[in-house]
Amino acid sequence: MQQTFTYKQKAREMLIVLVPIFITQLALMSTGFFDTIMAGHVSEQDLAGVAVGVNLFFPFWGSCLGIISGLTPVVAALYGGCRHEKITFII
Q1: What are the CA-CA distances from residue 68 to residues 49, 64, 75 (Å)?
Q2: pTM of the model
Q3: φ and ψ at 4, to 5 degrees?
Q4: Is the model more confident about 31 or about 16?
């Protein structure tokens, strides 16, 4: 028998998933924001250095997070399918 969910139940489930992701993204982006603000109070050269550093760091960081996020469902599917020997190969 298939269970049906109301809109309110679906919205609640979505918020349960959304809140930790939102907090994580906010924390990650705020580091670059506050670094830029603090460096701007020191000097123009420091501000330029932080801006370049943040713009080089975040694409690398985002790529790594994307790969890790893509691995999670694959590993979960293998684990759920009792194919534990393939998990090591995927990782």
Answers
A1: 29, 6, 10
A2: 0.50
A3: -105, 145
A4: 16
